[in-house]
Each structure stands twice: as structure tokens, then as C-alpha cells.
Recover the amino acids of this structure.
């Protein structure tokens, strides 16, 4: 089996699966170790980027997926139905940010940071497949823990959660003060 055949195997698997496939599973499928498989995939990624091709391989938290190049989206839209675009309001973005940086996190922890209820925002983010249930906390009532999904990484062009920009400590304190002020104002209004 030559390298071209192994590359064809990987390409066929990624094409057929249509979603991200873990490195471990790919290595087992082509009967190679993970280090060799990763090197082959990285070479393929470079090759796809150098050539005028309509697809490329992306890495999502240690998994790999064959995807259409973003520059060709317009051409694809001319022939397919336009997918429903999800609108991420400020409330949804704030909630998503908290989950991304604090995960796994409970609804009550999110509300403590935001200073307001967040049931609607969490439900919308689940509907958009940006977050999911990530288990349950070992505490009374066993509250649900939330975390981000592969779709979150894909939507924001991240390879992994380690790619998230670092939090600015000063801005974090400003946000916390704003949230506390909003919570106080809500108490006064009630």
C-alpha cells in the first residue's frame, strides 16, 4: 500500500462520514499509528490548500473533517437552498461566552455571572447546536452541566477550545460590575 492509497482511504472516510472523525478512529481504519496518521493528514491539509480544490480538511479538537472551502460558499448557495441563519443576539453571545470559557458550567453558575435568568438563551444555544449537556454536577439535585459542541468550534473557526482568545482581566471585572449593577436595578424595579 503506497502513500497515495492511504491518503485515498482517509479522504474516502472523511467524505463518507460527513462529520469530524477522531484521529484514533482514522488510525485504526487505515491500520497505522496515530502519529503517522496525523502526519499524513497534515500533509494532505497542506496539499489541499496549495491546490485549486473545492474542499479542505479542518481539525476540530483532535478530530478531522472534510469540508467545502469557505471561499466557494456563494457558488454552492446558487444551487442549494439557503440554510436558515441563526441570529446570535448579545444575550446569546454573552451566555455562549460564559459557557465557552467556564465549561462545564451549570445554568445557575451562568445566571450568577450574568445576573439574570438565562433559560431562553440556553435553550436557543442548544437548538442552534452550539452547546450541549456535558453531564451532571455531583451536587444536590444533580444540576445539568453545559459545554460547547463541535459546531461551536466550526462556527467560530476554532481548532480547539485552547484557540479561544485569552480573557482580559480588566474587561472581566468591568463586565462583572455591570452585571451586578443590572441585578441591583432589577431588584429596585421589582
Amino acid at each position: 500500500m503506497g502513500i497515495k492509497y492511504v491518503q485515498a482511504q482517509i479522504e474516502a472516510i472523511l467524505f463518507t462520514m460527513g462529520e469530524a472523525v477522531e484521529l484514533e478512529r482514522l488510525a485504526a481504519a487505515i491500520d497505522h499509528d496515530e502519529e503517522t496518521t496525523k502526519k499524513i493528514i497534515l500533509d494532505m491539509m497542506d496539499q489541499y490548500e496549495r491546490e485549486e480544490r473545492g474542499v479542505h480538511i479542518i481539525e476540530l479538537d483532535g478530530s478531522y473533517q472534510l469540508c467545502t472551502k469557505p471561499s466557494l460558499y456563494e457558488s454552492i448557495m446558487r444551487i442549494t437552498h439557503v440554510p436558515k441563519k441563526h441570529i446570535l443576539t448579545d444575550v446569546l453571545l454573552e451566555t455562549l461566552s460564559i459557557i465557552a470559557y467556564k465549561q462545564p458550567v451549570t445554568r445557575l453558575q451562568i445566571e450568577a455571572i450574568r445576573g439574570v435568568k438565562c433559560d431562553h438563551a440556553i435553550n436557543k444555544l442548544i437548538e442552534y447546536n452550539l452547546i450541549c449537556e456535558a453531564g451532571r454536577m455531583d451536587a444536590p439535585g444533580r444540576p445539568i452541566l453545559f459545554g460547547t459542541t463541535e459546531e461551536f468550534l466550526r462556527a467560530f473557526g476554532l481548532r480547539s477550545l485552547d484557540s479561544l482568545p485569552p480573557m482580559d482581566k480588566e474587561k472581566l471585572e468591568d463586565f462583572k460590575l455591570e452585571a451586578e449593577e443590572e441585578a441591583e436595578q432589577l431588584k429596585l424595579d421589582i
